[in-house]
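Backbone-to-sequence.
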């Protein structure tokens, strides 16, 4: 078999560097007497993973000098009550951008909430307006995880032009927007893209053709060595908690890729944790900075 020396796409390390760049930008703004950017989050219910993600977004916001706020609502919140908070944030001059942490409790229709977010504050890039702008190549907020993956590949100098990128998973949050981004005629893209999903026939045959394989299917250790071409770049978006009594937390994190057998085959691979996750948060900070700049510009020309 072909000898490949596996290299790590270290999202943790890269995220620290990009956060320093953002922090410098914030310092320059505040030195000019401007207020720092403000990112808000709405968290409904007590899902453990969602609480961890929101806490992490808040911590990163403070690391770069943003201010932040979290609106915590009980699990039995009605759609109407959640819409009131969304409408408040849409109108709030102190809030540059905000996210509604998903998933939402089942009495709330996610699409009704996303439709109500003002596109100019939609730093997750989830609204139909921002998705439409992205697909037509207009300026928009790019969804955080796909944007983070593009950043990771670009900053590590991975050549994407003309490469076959196979994306496994077609969620609105990751797979579908990523397939669009990777096929664009833009820096860090220009791939030939195949988007695979639960109805795809002969999945392993397709994934084995990938120069760049992105796995966002939400199934622990789904991708095994027989599904990967030697020398491929493998990006693992999955993150799952599995019980592990040897850990202080009582669990460890695994991805959608079976790293013990896939990693030795790869030219480059993202670890779990410390791969895509930290870049997702960085993208959210970058989007908030973009929203802030737009608002400041709009205010100075009004
Ligand atoms: N739940 C899982 N990923 C995300 C994300 O990127 N944004 C929001 N708002 N919720 C999520």
């Amino acid at each position: 078999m072909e000898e490949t020396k596996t290299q790590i796409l270290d999202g943790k390390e890269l995220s620290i560097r990009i956060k320093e760049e953002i922090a410098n930008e914030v310092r320059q703004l505040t030195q000019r007497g401007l207020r720092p950017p403000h990112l808000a989050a709405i968290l409904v219910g007590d899902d453990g993973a969602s609480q961890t993600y929101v806490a992490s977004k808040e911590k990163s916001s403070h690391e770069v000098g943003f201010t932040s706020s979290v609106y915590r609502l009980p699990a039995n919140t009605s759609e109407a009550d959640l819409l009131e908070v969304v409408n408040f944030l849409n109108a709030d001059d102190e809030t540059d951008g905000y996210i509604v942490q998903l998933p939402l409790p089942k009495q709330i229709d996610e699409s009704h909430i996303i439709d109500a977010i003002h596109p100019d504050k939609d730093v997750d890039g989830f609204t139909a307006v921002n998705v439409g702008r992205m697909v037509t190549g207009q300026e928009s907020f790019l969804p955080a995880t796909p944007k983070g993956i593009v950043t990771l590949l670009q900053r590590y100098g991975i050549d994407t032009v003309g490469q076959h990128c196979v994306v496994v998973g077609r969620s609105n949050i990751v797979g579908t927007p990523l397939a669009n981004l990777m096929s664009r005629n833009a820096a860090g893209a220009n791939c030939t893209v195949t988007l695979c999903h639960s109805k795809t026939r002969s999945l392993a045959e397709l994934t084995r053709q990938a120069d760049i394989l992105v796995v966002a299917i939400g199934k622990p250790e789904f991708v095994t060595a027989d599904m990967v071409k030697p020398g491929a770049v493998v990006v693992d978006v999955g993150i799952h908690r599995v019980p592990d009594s040897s850990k202080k937390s009582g669990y460890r994190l695994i991805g959608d890729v079976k790293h013990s057998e896939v990693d030795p085959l790869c030219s480059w691979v993202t670890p779990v944790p410390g791969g895509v996750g930290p870049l997702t948060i960085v993208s959210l900070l970058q989007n908030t900075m973009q929203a802030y700049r737009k608002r400041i510009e709009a205010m100075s020309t009004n």
